[in-house]
Amino acid sequence: MRYLLIPIKDLTNAKQRLSPVLGPLERMALATLMLRRTLDNVTGVELADRIAVVTCYPPAMSLASGQGMEVIVE
What count of other Cβ atoms lies within 10 Å of the Cβ of residue 67? Predict the structure, then answer.
């Protein structure tokens, strides 16, 4: 069986290197958009038998579950 594992950290402090040009809420919004796009793009992967998100971040758990992905609590 082939798993596609997607590790996701807490996005609250994501994209710190962009802090000179983006505020905390903008960085979090960007990281959330990137996460949503990633999850959308992997839903059609045919080479994986199962897709799972590995995280302790509740919003990521919710997004993954909503797309029918497994959630592995870190």
Answer: 14
d(CA 23, CA 16): 9
- Distance CA(20)–CA(56), nearest Å, equals 28
- For 5-44, write each residue's pLDDT tens digit: 999 999 999 999 999 999 999 999 999 999 999 999 998 8
| Nearest-angstrom CA–CA distance, 62 and 55 | 11
Classified as helix, coil or strand, 2 is: coil
Chain centre distance of CA 69? 11
